[in-house]
Amino acid sequence: MPEVLKAPLVVEFPFTRSLGPVQSAFLTGLRDRVVLGVRTGDGRTLVPPVEYDPVTAEEIRDLVEVAPTGTVTTWAWNHEPRRGQPLSSPFAWVLVRLDGADTALLHALDAPGPDAVHTGLRVRVRWAEDRVGAITDIACFEPYDGDPAQPTGHSGEFEDPVTGIVAAARLDYTYSPGRAQTAYINALADHRAVGERCPSCRKVYVPPRGACPTCGVATAEQVEVGPAGTVTTFCIVNIKAKNLDIEVPYVYAHIALDGADLALHGRIGGIPYDQVRMGLRVEPVWTDGGRYPDHYRPTGEPDADYETYKELL
Amino acid sequence: MTRDIAVVAFAQSDILRTTEEQSEVEMLMPVLHDVLDRTGLKTADIGFTCSGSCDYLAGRAFSFTLALDGVGAWPPISESHVETDGAWALYEAWTKLLSGDADTALVYSYGKSSPGSVRDVLTRQLDPYYVAPLWPDSVALAALQAQALIDAGDTDEPALAGIGTRSRATDNTRAQLRGSVPQGDYVVRPLRTGDCPPIGDGAAAVVLAAGERARELCSRPAWIRGIDHRIEAHGLGVRDLTDSPSTRLAAEKAGAFERPVDTAELHAPFSSQEVVLRKALRLDENVRVNPSGGALAANPMMAAGLIRIGEAAARIHRGESDRALAHATSGPCLQQNLVAVLEGDPR
Ligand SMILES: [Zn+2]
Q1: Using the beta-carbon criterion (under 8 Å), do A106 and B131 form an inter-chain contact?
Q2: Cβ B132–A167 below 8 Å, yes or no?
Q3: Which of B42, B69, B108, B201 has the highest number of chain A CBs within 10 A, making it the mutation to test binding with A?
Q4: 20 to 30 A Cα–Cα from B305, which one of A202, A237, B76, B312?
Q5: CA dihedral of residues B11, B16, B19, B22 (deg, nearest 10)
Q6: Given a cut of 90, is residue A227 above it in pLDDT?
Q7: Looking at the domain covering B5-116+198-221, what would its CATH class be?
C-alpha cells in the first residue's frame, strides 16, 4: 500500500466577542490597573467576576474593587512553557485569591524555580506595559512580601469602557486524508479518476471515502471512471472568494463522471456561465503540473438524456 | 411506563498513538461491524443511532457527517450527535429508548488526537474571556488540581505513581500502554508522564436494547439501573478542586449509593483525578477499580468515557461483575461528570 498523504494544516480564527457589563468592567479595570470583583447575594466576592451567581444562578452586577495583592491557593510548575502562555521562561501556574476576594484567579507566577513557590505564597500583580482590556493586561504575578495593597476606591464606572475582545486562536495539525482518499488524490495527479465499488450494492463512489453510506461496509475495489462526465446540477457563484484567483460569475457544478454512482463537484470553464445546463457533457482540464483538475470544460458531445443521470441528482 | 434498558454489546478498536493511514470512518467501521456482529443486528435494524466526537481534535470540520457513512445512513435513519464524549451520546440514546421511540440504539464515538497537539487543542474549550487567552494546557490544569490534593493531604507523589502502575498492569489487549511504564519526568509538576494519559486514537461502540429485546440479543444484559450527569461552575477558582460534588450528585441520582458496587470503571485521565473520584464516589478497597486499565492505559478522547460504560457492561456480560459503576468526564479538572449504574440478572 502506498504511503498515505500528509500535509500541515493550520486552523486560525480571531473570534470577536462582545462583553456584558460585568466582564466589560473587569477587563476595562485591568486596562486601568484596577481589579474588580462582583458581590453575590450572600456577600461573597467573586474574582474574576461573572454575571450569574454560580450557586443560585441569580444575576449579579454589584462591582467591588479588590487588591492587586493576594495568596496562592494552588500551583503547578511549568518548566516548558508552550506557545501562547504568559511567560516564555519556566513559570508556575497559580490560582491566586486576591485580598478582598473569596475565589481565585488563574494566571502565571514569575518565580526563579519550584522551590520558590508554595501554596500560601504572597504575590502581587505585575501589570503588562501595554494594556488593552484583556486578561493578559496582567502580565503575571510575582512574589511579594509587603502588606496587602489597598484598593483605590474605584466605583467600577469607566469613561470609555472596553466592550469587546478579539480572542485569537491558532491550532496546528498534520492532516491526512486516509487510505481511500490518498489513492484518489494520487490518481488525480496521474490525470486519472478512481472510485471504489461497494461489495454489497455495487455502487461506485467517487471520490471514495472508504465506506458505502448505504450499506455501511468498507469499500476497497478500485474502479477507474471518467474522464468525461455529465453536469447533474449547478450554481452560479457571484461573490469572489478571498485568495481565489477566479473571475466571477462562474459556475460550480455537480458532475457525474462516466461509470460513477456519485457526483463530485468542480468548476465549469470554457463556456459562458449562462450557457451551462443540466446534462452538459464535460471533461477535466489539468493545468501544467497540476495535481488535480483545474476545471471541467464542455466535450462538445450532445447533452446527456435526463434519464441517464436523474438517479444521481 | 418505565422500561428496562441494557447495554447488550460493546466493541472497541485497538487504541494507538496514531492511525494516520485511516480516515475516521475507516477507523470506526470495524468497530461498528464488531458490535453489530455480537448482536446479529444489521444497521437497518437499529432504531436510533447516536454518536460522540469533536472536530477540534483532528481539525476536520463536520467530521461526524463523514463517519455516518459507516452506519449506512441511506435511506435516512434516526440519528443524532453530541460534540463530546460518547458517554453523553449513550445518555441521549437511553432517553430515546425510555421514551419508547425505539427498542434498540447504536452508540458510537471516536477520536483522532494524533493530527494535532491535544494539550493545546483542549485549551479552546476553556472560558474564552479570562482563561483561554492564557493557553493553560490540560496537563497544567490537572497539575493544579493534583497540588491542591497534595496540600490537602489526600495523596502524595508516590501514591499517584501507584495509581499509574496499577492502571497499566492490565491484561486489556486494546490498551495503548501496558505493563511496566516508567513514572518519568515532570510534565507539569507535580504530575509526571506516568500520571498523565497516553495520547491516542480510537473508537468504541455500544448497542442498547429495551426489555425483552435485550434478552433476545444478549444472554446476560447489563441493565442500566440509573444514569445521570452533572456539571460544576466553569471558573476553576470557584471550585474546590479536591472534591467532585458533581460526580457525587450524579452518582446519588443514578442510585449508586443504594447498594455497593463490585466494579468501578472511572474516567480519570490523570492519576490525581482517581483520588478525587474515589472520594466522591465513596469507593473502598473492596471495589475493583479500572480492571481495564482506565484512561491512564488508553484515553482516546471522546471515546474513553463510552469505553468505561462498555467495559463495565462487558464484565457483567461475562459474569465477572453483578453491579458495576461507570463514570465519564469531560472538561478541565473533572468539570462535567456522568455516572451509570449497571447490573446483571441475579445468578
Ligand atoms: Zn453499498
Answers
A1: yes
A2: yes
A3: B69
A4: B76
A5: -20
A6: yes
A7: alpha beta
